[in-house]
Specification:
The chain has one helix spanning 2-12; strands at 25-34, 37-51, 58-65, 68-75, 81-88. Helix content is 10%, strand content 43%. It is mainly β and 115 residues long. It contains 1 helix and 5 strands; from the N terminus they run H-E-E-E-E-E. Strands 4-3-2-1-5 form a 5-stranded antiparallel beta sheet, with no helix packed on it. The N and C termini lie far apart (41 Å).
């Protein structure tokens, strides 16, 4: 069991990930390989949830693209994630804000944390 913990610590120590939670608007810089070329694509949206389970931590980001809601799940410690940038901090009272899927208009807005 200790060997697994050592591998997790070694894998996660080099990763500089900003602290964020559900409701925050983040900008994820994701590496995409096309053939032998590599480029970085930005994905900006609201974090719906963050699932914590050590090295298998994932987070779900939702954005609206051409009037259609698009969700994407990212592994936090993936080698393909270049960096995660927090744009704004959201003021929510839940850890999983799936109610945003059905909300429209002003109800789909998240208040910004002050301070």
């Amino acid at each position: 069991m200790d060997a697994i913990k050592l591998v997790e610590q070694e894998f996660t120590k080099d990763k500089n990930v900003a602290a964020f939670n559900a409701g925050d608007t983040v900008n994820v810089y994701y590496k995409i390989r096309e053939g032998n070329k590599e480029r970085i694509q930005q994905y900006q949206g609201v974090v719906l949830q963050k699932r914590n389970s050590g090295i298998q931590t994932t987070f779900t980001v939702r954005k609206i693209s051409n009037g259609v809601g698009v969700e994407r799940i990212f592994p936090l410690y993936s080698l393909n994630i270049d960096k995660v940038e927090v744009m704004t901090r959201g003021k929510v009272r839940r850890a999983r804000i799936f109610y945003l899927r059905d909300a429209k208009g002003k109800a789909a807005k998240i208040k910004e944390k002050r301070g």
